[in-house]
Specification:
By secondary structure, this protein is an alpha+beta fold. α5 runs antiparallel to α6.
């Protein structure tokens, strides 16, 4: 993969990240339309090793149609280009060996390109890191990784961590907003105090989940809090996370794109 470092913020609608693959599994099938399918899919057109990073990335993308291979594996089942879409996001994952001729699973890295609203991209990257449980920007061979990607390890770290931090900040802001609404409703009507207690409990759970980087649990807890607040006062207006994500387009944060495709 030939690539070079690009200027900061050269394409504010796109994020490009690189990740070290640690596991080649799961092995999956490719159907006759070049779509990714479970292993042993009927009328399979071939096999592919998806790897731990790509598996985490597709899960973080959320509900999506079966991803399609832009480039299917030929001799090496771990070399491929995969494209998937979910709502406003488009993700392209390129799996390639960057050292050792692909003889070991640690020879491989994934280039992950995500297009769409910045808030949604940040949330997706946050969930990838949380799912992997390790730092994907830490390679098995530092010098080779830096040479192939055209960026220093510190740049890779910053590119990942900026997005993870932005997603955490967004969820924290939403928790704070709901906490403020709950406080404003206190003392207005004794009959809703128990409902507000439920909202506060849910917001506490949201904070605990955020500390654990468990974004799905944060969203579930926020949903419970929102429902309780609306039940306590149906006239209350609270911005949803979807609205916040769309508004992020108006407050774009410069990105560190680590490559430009040829």
């Amino acid at each position: 993969m030939d690539s070079e470092a690009s200027e900061v913020g050269s394409d504010p609608s796109r994020t490009i990240l690189y990740a070290q693959v640690r596991e080649g599994n799961p092995q999956m099938s490719i159907d006759e339309e070049d779509r990714l399918r479970p292993l042993n899919w009927p009328e399979s057109g071939g096999k592919v090793y998806l790897g731990d990073v790509a598996q985490a990335a597709l899960r973080a993308l959320g509900p999506h149609d079966p991803p399609r291979f832009a480039e299917s594996p030929v001799f090496d089942e771990q070399r491929w280009v995969l494209v998937s879409r979910a709502n406003e996001l488009t993700m392209t994952i390129t799996s390639t060996a960057y050292w050792g001729f692909g003889l070991f699973k640690s020879c491989f890295m994934n280039q992950i390109e995500i297009r769409g609203p910045y808030g949604l991209r940040a949330r997706c990257v946050h969930d990838i890191v949380a799912s992997l449980g390790h730092k994907p920007w830490e390679p098995a061979r530092v010098s080779k990784f830096e040479s192939v990607t055209g960026a220093k390890l510190a740049e890779h770290r910053v590119a990942w961590e900026e997005l993870v931090s932005r997603a955490s900040e967004g969820m924290s802001e939403e928790i704070i907003e709901l906490e403020d609404v709950t406080r404003r409703l206190r003392g207005k009507d004794e009959s809703i105090e128990g409902i507000l207690d439920s909202a506060e409990t849910a917001l506490y759970e949201a904070r605990m989940a955020l500390a654990d980087r468990n974004a799905p649990a944060v969203e579930r807890a926020l949903g419970r809090a929102y429902t309780a607040i609306v039940e306590a006062d149906p006239s209350t207006e609270v911005r949803s996370s979807e609205m916040r994500a769309s508004e992020d387009l108006l407050d774009e944060v410069p990105l560190v794109d680590l490559s430009e495709e040829e």
